[in-house]
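The passage that follows is intended for readers who have already worked through the single-chain material. We present the inputs for a multi-component assembly, then the predicted structure in tokenized form, and finally a short commentary. You are encouraged to pause after the input and sketch how you expect the pieces to fit together before reading on.
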Amino acid sequence: MRRRSTWISAAAAAAFALVGCVTINIYFPAAAAERAADRIIDEVWQLKPDAEKPRTEKPAAKQ
Amino acid sequence: MLHLTWLRVAVFTILLGATALAAAQANLEINTPAVAAIQKSMQDRHAQLLPLYSSGAVGLTRDGGVALRDANAVPLAQRAQVNALIAAESQDRAALYREIARANARPEWESDIRATFAQRWIDKAQPGWYYQNAGGAWVRK
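Having made your guess, compare it with the prediction:
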């Protein structure tokens, strides 16, 4: 009896692990994609000048 | 005793699954030479596209690209140049979406990445710029 329940536990753990792997493969990480898009768009459109100054501006302040 | 062992195994498996899931959700890989090159190319082109967005000559499409919206807003002499700009930008954007999908070893994500970008380009567009709504009609932001 004890042996049987052990096998059931093992099967449940394996099934859970398998479902976890499938989940990772199927779902598109929408939030992560949005963050990635924002980073690239901010760079391309230069929306956050503090992050990286455009080369064309601010010729002053050089010593 | 045996049950306790299996309980540990189960807990460990659950934790492992949760960790893997968190890692997968954490970030999308965009720091690759290919992505950086495309980004640089688009950044350099933006100075030329900016006045075209502002005048409404060029708009943001619903599929994450750019398109000529109003040819009359462009002087005849400059139309060929504007068309070339649009073609180059569209090509870069398509390559960007493809490369991000590839960098994450998920080529099948390309269309989802494209859709995400399409929405974010529009969200971040300046007031006065034109974009395509879900039905494909041009809307002034």
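Commentary: Residues 51-63 of chain A have pLDDT under 50 and may be disordered. The helical segments of chain A are 2-26, 30-44. How closely did your sketch match?
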